[in-house]
Structure formats: structure tokens, C-alpha cells
Amino acid sequence: MATKTLLFTFLLLAIATSCSKNIDYSQEHINQTSGRYLFSPDEVVDVYYDSNKLYLKWRGAEKLEPVVLDEHTFFVADMYKKLRFVQQPETKKYYLSIIPEDENAPLTYDYLKVSDSFKTPSMYLQSKNYSKALEGFLEIKKQDSTSIFIEEGEINELGYEKLRKKEFQDAIEVFKINVALYPDSDNVYDSLADAYLRHGDSLQAFNNYTKALELNTGNKRAKKFIETYKKN
To answer: What keyword terms does UniProt attach to this protein (predicted)?
Structure first.
């Protein structure tokens, strides 16, 4: 059944691709629609034109070519979405609108066009602007405390990835972000303590292991370090 569904999907895509239209975009249209759109709280999609053809950058793909249906509407196979450029009449801001299967459904304004310099929290994190990254992640948590973009385990793994590369200060900054996001978790303090210890700062390691033990008296690693530290 799954194989049949997959084959049917590929068939639809092949038909759609063959129906892609060649549009002679005006410079005004290109200027209005080119740019960065906020796809999710921590993701963007970049729209651009090359040789009068529409392309998208999204999730690491540098040149996604959508199936063009008309000047404003296109289908993106990788997203499995039909999108349309729209302008909100009151704010005059541009959006990418998801076109639903039901043609009678009301128009929605889904992905806001932002400035070309706009960065998501993860983009700030990648560029090592940790204060801006934290600011963005805290805003995401404010809107949705269970968001997949601020998972404690994912951020912790990123910190340890930097530790494995011996990027100690960067690891510390990443773990600090996790502490700010999850101040009631003993694990985030344990990880921050580990980073400080590997960086040679035993005092900060002690302080954070102490906090970890306060939150979880069963944290054996924290307890062992604190006992050893106090003996020296």
C-alpha cells in the first residue's frame, strides 16, 4: 500500500512538473516577492529569481525549483505545499499563503516576509551571537513552551558536540542557554558544570554541580564531584 502511494505521489509530481509554466516576471513583481519569509519560529525560506526563474532556499537546499502555476502561485514538492504570494490589504505586508485543497476556504496569511537581514535563533546560534540566540529562544518558549525548536535534549547535544571539538567556551555558552530555558532541570546544570570542568574552571564546575544536586539529590556525578572538591 505504501509503495502504491509513493508511486502515485511521484506520478503527480511528474505531471505537475511537466505543467510548470514559463512566466515572464516583471521587475516590480521580482522586487516585491524576492526575499526572506518566516516559515516557522526558527526557520526561514528565501525566495529569489535567477534568469527570470523562481527558486527557493530551504532547509539546506540552495536551489529548489518549484512548479510554477501562474505568476503568483507555485507548488513546492519538497514541502508538498501549493503557495501563493499575497499582500495583506491593511498592513501592506507580503506573505506566502498556503493554498488549501478546498477552493472555497478563506485566504490565509501564513509565512510573513521579513527583512533580508532577519535571523532566527538558530541562525544567531550558528554565528555565535549567543545573547541574540537566547533572546529568540526565550520568545519561542513564551509563545509555546513545548516547541520542538527549544528541546532541552537537542540543545544539550549541541553543547556536547562543541565539547567534543574542544570548543569549550562555545559549549559553555550553549549550555548557559539551556540553563536559561530550563532552570528547573538538574541536567542542564550538570552539563554546564562538565563544560566548566573540562575548560579548567573548577570553581564554576562546583557551583553548577551544587545547583544540579539541589535540584536532584540523586545526581551521583554531582555528589561525587562536590565531595572531592571539598576535600581539596
So the answer is: Signal, TPR repeat
Percent of the chain with pLDDT over 90: 87
Instruction: Tell me which fold the domain 151-231 belongs to.
Output: 1.25.40
Whole-prediction pTM value? 0.85
pLDDT for residue 217: 95
Concatenated DSSP letters of the chain: -HHHHHHHHHHHHHHHHHT-------HHHHHHH-EEEEEETTEEEEEEEETTEEEEEETTEEEE--EE-SSSEEEETTTTEEEEEEE-TTT--EEEEE--SSTTSPP---EEEE-TT---HHHHHHTT-HHHHHHHHHHHHHH-TT-GGG-HHHHHHHHHHHHHTT-HHHHHHHHHHHHHH-TT-HHHHHHHHHHHHHTT-HHHHHHHHHHHHHH-TT-HHHHHHHHHHHH-
pLDDT band at residue 3 under the 50/70/90 scheme: low
